[in-house]
Design a protein that fits this description.
about 190 residues, alpha+beta, L,D-transpeptidase catalytic domain-like, about 25% strand
Length: about 190
C-alpha cells in the first residue's frame, strides 16, 4: 500500500530516519527507508515498491493527470513533469446495476475536473430515488461522474459509475493535487 507523501511524513515524524507504514487496519505493510529531506518528496522517493502497476514516470504532458485503470482497480496521479506522486486502490462502475436495469461502467476517455466538493458532498441520485449517498471530496469530471471517497473500495468494480477512492486518498487528492482543470484519464475496461 502506498500513502500520499503527506500521510507518510506525518506518520514518520519530523526526523526521517526510517519508519514503518501501517495499512488502514493497522497491519504491517512495508518498511519505508529514510529519505533525504532535501530530496523532492515524490512517492518514488518514499515508497520503494508499488502494489499497483503504474510506472514511476511517463511522458511529461505539462499538466497534472489522474489515470484510473478499471481492470487493475487502481489510480495514479502524475505531476506535470510526468512523475508519479501518489497512487491507490479504486473501484469503478460495475457491469450491471440491478436498480438501473443496465450497465453502469465508468466511461473511458480523457476528461477534466470541472467541479469539486468537500467532505459534505453527497449524491443527488443514489440511492434511488432520493439520493444522499456520501461522496466525500467529490471531483466531478464527466457529467455526474466523479472521483470521490468511499468506505467501500473493494478490489472489483462496484459503483454506479463513479470512481470510488479511500476517503484519505480522495481528501489528499482534493486538498493537494486536483484543481478545476486537472486531467482525468479513465482507461478502457
Amino acid at each position: 500500500m502506498k500513502l500520499p507523501v503527506k500521510s507518510v511524513l506525518l506518520m514518520c515524524g519530523a526526523i526521517l530516519t526510517g519508519c514503518t507504514m501501517m495499512t488502514d487496519d493497522s497491519s504491517f505493510s512495508q518498511a519505508v527507508p529514510a529519505i533525504n529531506v532535501n530530496q523532492e518528496t515524490t512517492m518514488q522517493s518514499v515508497a520503494p515498491e508499488t502494489t499497483y502497476h503504474f510506472p514511476t514516470t511517463r511522458q511529461p504532458t505539462g499538466s497534472k493527470t489522474i489515470i484510473v485503470d478499471p481492470n487493475e482497480h487502481a489510480w495514479g496521479a502524475y505531476d506535470a513533469d510526468g512523475y508519479l506522486v501518489a497512487e491507490g486502490p479504486a473501484s469503478t462502475g460495475k457491469g450491471y446495476c440491478p436498480d438501473l436495469g443496465r450497465a453502469c461502467k465508468t466511461p473511458a476517455g480523457s476528461f477534466m475536473v470541472y467541479r469539486k466538493g468537500g467532505a459534505e458532498c453527497k449524491s443527488s441520485i443514489f440511492p434511488i430515488p432520493e439520493g444522499g449517498a456520501p461522496m466525500p471530496y467529490c471531483m466531478f469530471f464527466n457529467g455526474g461522474y466523479a472521483l470521490h471517497g468511499s468506505d467501500f473500495v473493494p478490489n472489483y468494480n462496484a459503483s454506479h459509475g463513479c470512481v470510488r477512492l479511500r476517503p484519505s486518498d480522495a481528501q489528499w487528492l482534493s486538498d493537494n493535487f486536483v484543481t478545476v482543470g486537472t486531467k482525468v484519464q479513465i482507461l478502457p475496461y
